[in-house]
UniProtKB/TrEMBL annotation, chain A:
One of its GO terms (biological process) is transmembrane transport. Belongs to the binding-protein-dependent transport system permease family. The chain crosses the membrane at residues 26-46, 74-93, 105-131, 137-157, 200-220, 232-254. Residues 71-258 form the ABC transmembrane type-1 domain. This is ABC-type nitrate/sulfonate/bicarbonate transport system, permease component. PROSITE patterns: ABC_TM1 (PS50928). It comes from Pseudonocardia oroxyli. It is a multi-pass membrane protein.
From TrEMBL, chain B:
SUPFAM superfamilies: P-loop containing nucleoside triphosphate hydrolases. One of its GO terms (molecular function) is ATP binding. This is ABC-type nitrate/sulfonate/bicarbonate transport system, ATPase component. InterPro entries: AAA+_ATPase, ABC_transporter-like_ATP-bd, ABC_transporter-like_CS, ABC_transporter_ATP-bind, P-loop_NTPase. Keywords: ATP-binding, Nucleotide-binding, Transport. Residues 3-221 form the ABC transporter domain. Pfam families: ABC_tran (PF00005).
Amino acid sequence: MTATLERPPAAARPVPRRPARWAPPVVVIALLLVGWQLGVTLSGVAPQVLPSPLRVVEQGWANRAALWTNTLPTLQVTAVGFALSLAVGWVLATAVDFSPWLRRALLPLMIASQTLPIIAIAPLMILWFGFGLLPKVLVIALVTFFPIVVGLVEGFARTDREASNLLRSMGASRWTEFRYVRLPGALPSFFTALRIGITYAVTGAIFAEYVGAQAGLGIFMNQQKNSFRTDLVLAAVGVSAVITLALFALTFLVQRLVAPWIRR
Amino acid sequence: MKISVRDLQVSFGDLRVLDGVSFDVAPGEFVSILGPSGSGKSTLFQVLAGLLEPDAGRVEAASSAYMPQKDLLFPWRTVLDNTTLGLEVAGMPRRAARAKAGALFEPFGLSGFEHSRPDELSGGMRQRAALLRTVVQDRDVLLLDEPFGALDSLTRTAMQEWLDEMRARFGWTVLLITHDVREAVYLSDRVLVLSPRPARVVHERTIDLPHPREVTAAAAVEVELRGALR
């Protein structure tokens, strides 16, 4: 061969090292906690009103058994509710992608579902479905399915027209085109939507439990607030924040397993 | 005839894009379609690739494989699995498809990149991978829509020389869209010139020169400079 073929580009720039990425949030959180601790100590405010962070940790640890018993139901409700939300989200988004008629029929309904004030709906759910798993699962699904559907629908729609043409020129059916191009192409925006959804899921679970439950972080917070145990309310808030962060981090792990080609 | 087009007409609403286009392509022939931007060249290809129904006219086209302007290599597939796409869509088992496409990696200058991701390839390599994906489908005609349009001028020239060799080696029947006159003259057996929209064939030129084509005195200096740049 006489024609000289050029070489591939050099390797991409390395990502910043870990400490550089983690340092800023750690510094900010540490500063806030120190400020809070100093503020509480110096002002002498009553712990029923505002406990110091040290007290929150100390009392949270002393009541770790109660916190743990109430964390498990919340985790369970979150997992089931979010799984339902994902299933519904994928089915709706796929249906809407295949049928313009369904898109026109369903999208306004879905948007309308997001205008429902959850604060009014959640107690009604308990009225209708009791104190079991179902009303909480429905509240979580209601608050999290929308970002998932929107992320998927827009991800599917973002498919390059020319990529569709290429597949059709190869003789692909609509379903084959969906499987080979539209579905994988939608994954980046799906994972973004997944991260938004999962942060709402834990809050949704706590909200549903707050209104009425046999156990769970939400009802625990409600009970502790009624006993003026602000420190334990905040300890439960801390636990829910840790759960949310862990689930958020988990989405990156799943993304690396499912779609390692997505560049960040 | 591999392709026979008679009095082809296509309009989008009130916009008349193709206005009675007629031409033939013989087996083993390399024909270029030259025309100003927006003259309906890509529309013509969409009709030939079966993506668009013409309003009027007759099209007899052997089975064709279509290579769009963008390389459209999918980041979720390795280079090898991108090149087997057409075979997989046609129902060939993955293992057989990989063996068939893999055999072309050497002549296409892609050896060793079978399991790379497309973003690890240079622009020229990406276009060769896209061409491999087109060629491996074993269709009768290759429809190439400005395949080198997005490349820098050095890479484009290298790719034109390479395509010229490959075509001589494999005996492909090619219909190439371009607005690069030199590219058309360098590669083609015959050039069809389209008018601005609404398009019709306004000029036809058979180029009966041996391959690889001789360069003029000025272009010889160009070749020397390109050689030095490598």
